[in-house]
Design a protein that fits this description.
The complex is a heterodimer. By secondary structure, chain A is α+β, with helices and mostly antiparallel strands. Chain A is built from twelve helices and 27 strands. Chain A starts with a helix and ends in a 41-residue tail after the last helix. Chain B is an all-alpha fold. Helix content of chain B is 68%, strand content 0%. In chain B, helix 3 runs antiparallel to helix 7. The radius of gyration of chain B is 18 Å and the shape is globular. Classes of the chains: A alpha+beta, B mainly alpha. Chain B: InterPro entries: Somatotropin/Prolactin, Somatotropin_CS. Chain B: One of its GO terms (cellular component) is extracellular space. Chain B: It comes from Solea senegalensis (Senegalese sole). Chain B: One of its GO terms (biological process) is animal organ development. Chain B: Keywords: Disulfide bond, Glycoprotein, Hormone, Secreted, Signal.
């Protein structure tokens, strides 16, 4: 029977061809000897059924089972382990599987003690069957009616296949550290793992993520069973998981997640951010300020820009601050002018003229004796606020401010010389132009032409002046204000009234002499009532007087300006007189060129007559037309800003002034007064 | 794991003089018989330090084996981290190999097993040093590790000896060297064979180092809590 069975097995397993396989099958067959009875019965059954099975299987081929494969073996605690296998094809017949193992250094083959504890297709080795640090050689055999197949053997050592269970009792709580919360995570090792005795040493790892996000944050905890997580997002909800691994082995599965919600601590952060934002904005603004300031001017300029002050020459600004209008307007009138103490103003009728003399225009004025010089010449230079830039280079400047010799002049009714004192700035004169000259023009009929250079100012001034003038026989004082920064002390006999109001100006300021002419009509037709016409010539400081041959003004207290000619445009060209050039001193030319203005006729014509200069009597006349275009143009713009008016002095020369002889005054070219 | 190893390493390095000092009493008492000169260490502390030594040795041996495997062993021949291909030299030693067996043996036997293991590996590691030096491109890392391990093993032996003396009151130093001439000192003609032999050596040592560590830890557990330990 045995032989029959053996032969049957041999014939049935048609694929058993090799010797080894036959031996193997023999071996397995030997095992079956133990159950020989059953085997015989089984064989009989197979034999009986085979004829029935074979014809019934139409097209289905029964075959021995496919080759199984051991997939993995794992030990949870290094005391037991389990192996799983993957079955191959069963060949259409019911197949049984068996696991056999061998320990190292031993040839004894054992079969799996437990096929059920660990589930299907598994083999469980309990404590008694598990040896550590020992190699196991394991094989799985699949057997069906037609044959059996063997898997590849696998060698394992239990020590190296340990995969523990996940840690247990995961607990997450919120703790606080100085107001900042953090998570405290704690857990217990898996129950089966004997870490207490040191049989297994586990290291742990946990991961954290915010609810709703995908990225986990991993933390390695080592052998400790507690871990702190900082840097939490306020109000966030966190998931925490933990796993473990023995020193030689595999990582366990992640434990079940524990959820925790962090309370809000946002407000504390927010206040800090607000503070930071404010501070940084402040710093930014300061930085921008500095940048802007450094690019242009100084800080002082931005914070306290210079306030343009009143540019009234000879005007005390303090009066403006006091705020009394009467005082202000009265102050515009030079206190000494009209001179109340003397009668110098009596016969004076002064017109305030403003003259702008261009560079190429030179006025030659004949000084008239009648000029009453109660002019005050203040030498001052306008500051940069005067706005006289355009006039600068073309204006004549008479910047001599000396003492008013009004007394002398005013009292001299006739032929009161009028001097024009110009003091040229030593370093500022560029061109040889005449400084402004002024002359008093005696004309009883001044009222028709009222020169208003300072319209708003002059009218009250006028009134003031009228009051004083009334006192002084309603004589308008002609003032000449020549502003320069260097005022020479009045030395010469000039009719300049001392006038305060010298402004300290810087260099390169245009000097100008303001001629104030009031149209206050002096009733007195007497020569005393002379109208002072003052030419206000603005000239830039930069007007040099080299060409003119003028001496440095510092040396000479007074300078004369002579009217060279009058151009076709009815302008009086003034030429500064050489210093020291007094008639008779050797400047016969000059002397000859001087003309004297005799007077002003009703037609506003300047009456000149040739005269021989005599010393101090040489005067230059600054004539200013009452109603010349410049003046009007003066009036319209700001009072302190003479526009580019070129010398608008229209000389008024009478025909009978045969001054053309000297080339001094060209009668032909003169004089038509532009009527207004 | 690495931080634990580093900590252990630091501990071991720092405590190494102490361990040496501990082992000095052997000579102190013998030569001069003056116990006052020798530093005293408690049994618990000694056991702790021995365990730290063993842990560090196990860690470094595992790293050395992995490094060697990467560098010299062809991929098909690599062990699947599960077994040791060749028989280890210490297979003949009567060492318990399961937890149940370990639970049944006494402390004395536990210590004796450890001592046997340690002593049986001292010479092979020295041999391994010499063979690794013969390799053409063995990196210094590997050489340093194996050198360090062999040195530490010697100190571990000394510690265990002292511990045995303290715990078991056995005066004599049980030097049961493994007389088996398992190592063939002649150079094998085949390079691959030589590599595989060295590989086996390292793997076996890795396993035995782990054994030592476990035994010592179990011993410690028994010292503190006898009833709940393995």
């Amino acid at each position: 029977m045995l032989n029959t069975g053996h032969d049957l097995v041999a014939t049935l397993s048609s694929d058993v061809s090799t010797e080894a396989e036959i031996e193997e099958s023999d071996r397995w067959y030997q095992r079956f000897v133990g159950g020989a009875m059953m085997t015989n019965v089984w064989e009989a059954v197979v034999l009986l059924l085979l004829p029935f099975l074979a014809p019934n299987a139409e097209g289905t081929q029964y075959s021995p089972p496919g080759k199984p494969a051991l997939t993995r073996c794992r030990s949870p605690e290094k005391e037991t382990f389990t192996c799983w296998w993957e079955p191959g094809s069963d060949g259409g017949l019911s197949t049984t599987y068996a696991l056999y193992y061998r320990k190292e250094n031993s040839e004894t083959v054992y079969e799996c003690p437990d096929y059920h504890t660990a589930g299907e297709n598994s083999c469980f080795f309990n404590k008694n069957d598990t040896s550590i640090w020992v190699n196991y050689n394991i094989t799985v055999v699949a057997t069906n009616a037609l044959g059996s197949s063997f898997s590849d053997p696998v060698d394992i050592d239990v020590v190296y296949i340990v995969k523990p269970n996940p840690p247990e009792e995961l607990n997450v709580t919120i703790m606080e550290d100085k107001g900042w919360p953090y998570l405290r995570v704690s857990w217990k090792p898996p129950q089966k793992a004997d870490t207490r005795s040191g049989w297994i040493t586990l290291i742990y790892e946990l991961r954290v993520k915010l609810e709703g996000e995908d990225d986990w944050e991993m933390h390695l905890a080592g052998q400790q069973k507690m871990f702190n997580i900082f840097s939490l997002r306020s109000g966030g909800s966190y998931h925490v998981q933990v796993r473990c691994k023995p020193d030689h082995g595999f990582w366990s599965e992640w434990s079940s997640a524990d959820y925790i919600k962090v309370p809000d601590y946002f407000h504390r952060e927010k206040s800090m951010w607000i503070l930071i934002t404010v501070f940084s904005t402040f710093i930014f603004l300061i930085f921008m300020c500095f940048l802007h300031m450094n690019s242009n001017r100084s800080l002082k300029y931005y914070i306290l820009p210079p306030i343009p002050g009143p540019k009234i020459k000879g005007f005390d600004k303090q009066l403006l601050k006091n705020g009394k209008s009467d005082e202000i307007f009265c102050a515009l009138v030079v206190p000494d002018f009209p001179p109340t103490t003397s009668s110098k103003c009596e016969n004076l009728m002064v017109e305030y003229l403003e003259v702008y003399v261009s560079e190429e225009q030179e006025l030659i004025l004949e000084e008239s004796k009648e000029l009453h010089n109660s002019l005050k010449c203040e030498g001052s230079t306008s500051d940069n606020d005067s706005g006289r830039g355009s006039c600068d280079s073309h204006t004549l400047l008479m910047d001599k401010c000396g003492e008013a010799k009004g007394d002398e002049r005013q009292t001299d009714g006739e032929g009161h010389p009028m001097e024009m004192e110009a003091q040229m700035h030593q370093r500022d004169w560029k061109e040889g132009t005449l400084s402004s000259a002024y002359q008093d023009i005696v004309s009883p009929d001044m009222s028709s032409g009222r020169v208003k250079t300072w319209p708003s100012v002059f009218s009250p001034l006028h009134q003031c002046g009228s009051t004083s003038l009334n006192q002084m026989n309603s004589l308008a004082m002609a003032k000449q204000h020549c502003l320069s920064d260097n005022l020479s002390p009045p030395g010469s006999a000039s009719s300049f009234l001392p006038q305060s109001g010298r402004s300290t100006t810087e260099t390169h300021r245009p000097n100008y002499c303001e001629f104030y002419s009031s149209d206050k009509q002096l009733s007195s037709p007497k020569p005393q009532a002379q109208t002072h016409r003052k030419l206000q010539a603005h000239s830039d400081i930069n007007i040099s007087h080299k060409q003119a041959g003028l001496q440095s003004p510092a040396l000479r207290p007074t300078e004369y300006v002579e009217v060279q000619r009058v151009n076709k445009e009815d302008m009086v060209l003034l030429q500064p007189v050489e210093s020291g050039c007094v008639c008779g001193d050797g400047c016969p030319q000059v002397c000859q060129d001087y003309s004297k203005v005799k007077g002003l006729n009703s037609d506003n014509m300047l009456l000149l007559h040739r005269d021989v200069m005599e010393g101090e009597e040489v005067r230059s006349h600054c004539e200013k037309q009452e109603t010349n275009g410049c003046i009007t143009s003066h009036i319209t713009p700001a009072t302190q800003k003479p526009t580019d008016c070129i010398p608008t002095v229209t000389p008024i020369v009478q025909k009978e002034m045969g001054l053309a002889v000297s080339g001094y005054v060209d009668t032909a070219a003169m004089l038509t007064l532009p009527t207004h | 794991m690495m931080t634990a190893v580093k900590q252990s390493g630091v501990w071991a390095v720092l405590l190494w003089p102490y361990l040496l000092a501990v082992s000095i009493p052997l000579d102190c008492r013998d030569e001069q018989g003056n116990m006052s000169r020798c530093p005293f260490i408690s049994q618990e502390k000694l056991l702790d330090r021995i365990i730290q030594h063993a842990e560090l040795i196990s860690r470094i041996s595992e790293e050395s084996c992995s490094l060697f495997e990467e560098l010299f062993v062809p991929f098909p021949l690599r062990l699947q981290r599960n077994t040791v291909g060749y028989a280890c030299i210490t297979k003949a030693l009567p060492i318990p190999s399961s937890k149940s067996e370990i639970q049944q043996i006494s402390d004395k036997w536990l210590l004796q097993s450890v001592l046997m293991l340690v002593q049986s590996w001292i010479e092979p590691l020295v041999y391994l040093q010499t063979t690794l030096d013969r390799y053409d491109n063995a990196p210094d890392v590997l050489l340093n590790k194996t050198k360090w391990v062999s040195e530490k093993l010697v100190s571990l032996e000394q510690g265990v000896v002292v511990l045995i003396r303290k715990m078991l009151d056995e005066g004599t130093l049980t030097t049961t060297y493994n007389e088996q001439d398992l190592l063939q000192y002649d150079v094998l003609p085949d390079m691959l064979e030589s590599v595989m032999r060295d590989y086996t050596l390292l793997s076996c040592f890795k396993k035995d180092a782990h054994k030592m560590e476990i035994f010592l830890k179990l011993l410690k557990c028994r010292q503190t809590d006898k009833f709940n330990c393995a």
